[in-house]
Amino acid sequence: MASELLALLLAFLLITIHLLTKTRNPSNRLPPGSLGIPIIGQSLGLLWAMRTNTGEQWINNKIKKFGPISKLTLFGNPTVFLTGPVANKFIFSSTDSLALQQPQSMCRIIGRRNILELIGKDHKRVRGAISYFLKPEALRKYVFKIDQEIRHHLRTNWSDHNQVKILPSMKSLTFNVICSTIFGIERGAREILVQDFAKMMTGMWSVPVNLPFTNFNQSLKASSRIRKELTKVIEEKRRALKLGERSSDEDLITYLLSLGSDNGETLTEEEILDNAVLLMVAGHDTTAIVLTFLVRHLANDPITYAKILNEHEEIAKIKAPEEALTWDDLLKMKFTWRVAQEIMRTIPPVFGGFRRVIKDVEFGGYLIPKGWQVFWNASVTHMDESIFKEPEKFDPSRFEKQSEIPPYCFIAFGAGPRICPGYEFAKAETLVAVHYMVTRFKWSLCCKDNTFVRDPNPSPKQGLPVSIEVKASL
């Protein structure tokens, strides 16, 4: 009897140990899904879906198969895909367990000391410096520079042309605005950067295998050349600051160089350089895409076009012909910005993004291990009919009352404590560009094919060629 009781107790103990071990085994607590082939995983499938404009379908198929939480491998890292407002809040607010991260390919191309990679005090220090320059109070005085660059671009590239390809045009426009306001680089000196910048962008989302003739390899080489040129710019601005030939608020680079070490704000040379490259990428591509799809939409929506035109004509009436727009003028462009927001809701400029897991964390009952990455997607919540009624319908009035949009549901610029610091800059650039496009030009689409691909950002077929008619001089 005693031996039977001892055997029973031993069996009970073994079962308990087994259950505890099973419960604590990370592999049994991971989300459903497959990691696939190491390093590559599902990267090629996602990239192909984006380039065939079926990225949203690819995401929705994954949700149907595994639910709103699943694991996979993307761009060299084991990844957990999360979706929905609750997941968005977790992703954009969990600064203690999640850090900003982009694919390894982007990190290696841009540099490891940019704000998308930094954590803790370093992130706070660098983000604080950049955010100060980009906040509305500081941006007010840069509206004039933005105005002058946009007028120059439209005068040079639109006024004497019967046809314009909008996406390349808008990329050139935003690149020049960035060079002027962020870097303080004069027009003649920018040409060195233009071609290398285009090459650098091609490998941002790619498998990070550095083999000759791959997009990743070409992007790395282009990034190296850009960094050399920007290093020259930084050295020249540092010299000018020491000689008193420049003020600290002329552009972002000069401002970052002028920060003192007495209050712990100083940025290293690497941090200034890496974040300069990041801002060049972030400030160039997304705004160009918003403007491109806004032009496309207005060509097909005469009612919205008429409302925007009326808003801008009212502003133009009180301006002298050569008078630049001001910050106060931008505050009057409320309907225009609602249209831009609806463009970003229906066609997010950024397909998704990543966070790096800096310590084991649980979400939805699953374990997300340290060292993995979290992947989020914007279109899932943007097109959720429980959040946005009739999500397929283009309706700028959704944004009349921002308070009625639930938190973490519109994430074109991210959300929470790490919302994009360039939000106000992008808004100002968009509004100034729209003002001069609608008041000085008319356009119609040359290409009736309204489809687009993602590579990785949305790009209309043929660059969206339009016929141009000049209404008034710039």
From TrEMBL:
Signal peptide: 1-23
An annotated Gene Ontology molecular function: heme binding
Coiled-coil regions listed in the entry: none
Keyword annotations: Heme, Iron, Metal-binding, Monooxygenase, Oxidoreductase, Signal
GO BP terms, alphabetized: sterol metabolic process
Cofactor: heme
Record keyword Magnesium present: no
Alphabetical list of InterPro entries matching this protein: Cyt_P450 (IPR001128), Cyt_P450_CS (IPR017972), Cyt_P450_E_grp-I (IPR002401), Cyt_P450_sf (IPR036396)
Protein residues bound to heme: C420
Family statement: Belongs to the cytochrome P450 family.
Name of the protein: Cytochrome P450 716A1-like
